[in-house]
Amino acid sequence: MAEPDNQWGHEQISSALEVEQLDVNLYRSKTLYLPPRARGVFGGQVISQALVSANNCVDPAFSLHSLHCYFLLSASAAVPILYNVDRVRDGRSYVTRAVRAVQRGRTIFIMLCSFQRPEPRQCTFQLPMPPNVPPPDACEGIEVNYERLFKETSDPKVKDFCLTALEERRRSPIEVKLAGVRETEDGMPTFLYWHKARNTPVRYDPAFQKCILSYISDSQFISAARRTLAYVNQGGKGPTTVVMQTSLDHAISFYSDDFDCGDWLLYVIVSEAAASGRGSVHGRVSRERET
């Protein structure tokens, strides 16, 4: 089956997030990306396009501080998504917007996002970046693992998987490098990745940087639950097979306007629990330490 024409703009992050304004509070996707073997459009793209739509309906004096969203149905890459923005509240310090994504007359995704008038004089603190993380230039791109496995295996199914994964990496506007796996104090794995947006010739404004980071937030994320499940059950203590993976809900909190997704960002991911066919995953993004 041929790919929908609108997938070909996905390799550039700026075009992957672009939406077309149809009315005052109504926007439409321009490109949609269906990852190989996925049931629907990449969730990070839906989040980021919905956020671009919401940003267009907010006074630039306000800065996004959080979003909460639910994936209700898989999105087709063959039909544009319509983003309906509801201007829920306009306050002096906070602004709230709700976005409903619709495809073929059905709501596939909803998001509530909150914007704050910045208060730069308030006290700040944050957890430090994990110690002894290898710098990006000392880490391998995630595609190197697939290339190595492809050469080493004779299993045709594994080779096909590697080729599919390499194609997905080639098409992605986000570059990813492996920074290692560590155990927490309780013996659970923590996955570390370096991420950055490819082909960013200009420094985008802070509002769009948060849209890019929202896109990145769904990268290498949901698989942490499956990988943790396999990790803790290595001794055959329980089932490790995951038949299907899909995002149900997603939340992000932002505490900085001073970052550039064209630079390397460290993504630290931990899966906290799994039961009843569901898993909880938490991620934290840090900037590369300046030297």
UniProtKB/TrEMBL annotation:
Q: Boundaries of each Acyl-CoA thioesterase-like N-terminal HotDog domain copy?
A: 38-116
Per UniProt, the keywords (alphabetical) are: Hydrolase
A single Gene Ontology CC term = peroxisomal matrix
Recorded hits in Gene3D superfamilies, A to Z, give: Acyl-CoA thioesterase, double hotdog domain (2.40.160.210)
Write out the GO MF terms.
fatty acyl-CoA hydrolase activity
Does this entry carry the keyword Hydrolase?
yes
Q: Does the keyword Hydrolase apply?
A: yes
Per the UniProt entry, what are the Gene Ontology biological process annotations, in alphabetical order?
acyl-CoA metabolic process; fatty acid catabolic process
Where do the Acyl-CoA thioesterase-like C-terminal domain residues begin and end?
A: 165-288
Recorded superkingdom: Eukaryota
Q: Which PANTHER family match?
A: ACYL-COA THIOESTERASE (PTHR11066), ACYL-COENZYME A THIOESTERASE 8 (PTHR11066:SF34)
Which protein family is named in the record?
Belongs to the C/M/P thioester hydrolase family.
**Name recorded for this polypeptide:** Acyl-coenzyme A thioesterase 8
